[in-house]
Design a protein that fits this description.
Number of strands: 6
Number of helices: 1
Oligomer: single chain
Distance between the termini: 23 Å
Helix content: under 10%
């Protein structure tokens, strides 16, 4: 799972909210930004940002999705405590129903 939520290539879903221009800044305030890979594109984030806060800033809070950081799935119950670090590789995959 490595397409980016901020790249012209869409992630492995058809969810248009996960298509964004390449690269970008997802910051709160405070310290110098850290660099992470989000669905394949580099983004700057404020150090200390949690997975839950990232999802909120991306408009994905409360929506069904899977989040992987550095190849490991982050369970829903751990999203509030999982802090993102400089160099982390994050994959967010939305769930799409249909038939």
């Amino acid at each position: 799972m490595t397409p980016d939520a901020q790249s012209p290539t869409s992630p492995p879903t058809s969810d248009p909210s996960m298509r964004r221009p390449p690269g970008g800044t997802i910051e709160t305030s405070g310290d110098a930004p850290a660099s992470v890979r989000l669905n394949g594109s580099t983004h700057r984030i404020t150090p200390g940002l949690t997975v839950a806060a990232l999802l909120d800033r991306l408009g994905q809070a409360g929506r069904p999705c899977a989040v992987e950081v550095n190849g490991s799935l982050v369970p829903f119950r751990h999203r509030q405590e999982r802090i993102l670090l400089d160099g982390d590789r994050i994959e967010i995959v939305t769930l799409v129903g249909g038939g």
